[in-house]
Amino acid sequence: MVARLRYIGEVLKHAVPFAGWAAGLVTLSIGGSIIGGAAWLTETHHRTLAVALLAFGVLLAFVEGSYRVWIGVRAGMTELDSGEAKRAYLDEQIERALGLRSEFAGLVEPPDGVAGRRWQESEGVQDLVGDLDHWEDEVRADLKEAFSLETARLFSSDSGVEPQSPDGDGSLGLSRANCLAYVDRRIARLREIRTTL
Questions:
Q1: pTM for the model
Q2: Is residue 139 pLDDT above 80, yes or no?
């Protein structure tokens, strides 16, 4: 959830200047001034057109902002040429994983006596698991592009890395302990990859 909100914030930060420029251009071209634009809106079909233009402008601004964020991410990936840049990237991802770990640790598990309540039904678990999945997919893609396919596969592999899942198959939905062990394994892999640089 936090990662998604951060992404939307970045998109809007890049989209606002573009939206302001587009709104100013439309206002000047239609009415010649703000007063002329307001007078133009007194007719119903003009207001309908204005709402459609506004919706289109918001959509266009979001697309433009997403494109700029994507370009920024791609530009950042091309900077991962040196060993130092790769180590800094891995350190950043370890910090993000530690943040996710602390969020999992802060979630409250339902008491054993509460019938029908399981860990995955606890408040915030699904959002946090989604954030973890999103982060893991991003890291895997970055490792594949800037490091190698083998490095990306190593990051995703659980074989030979500790800690093992205490509750069986490693499913995140079983318990908080499984979630913490899973994040710890991803952190261990990132640290292992960092030692190879």
A1: 0.58
A2: yes
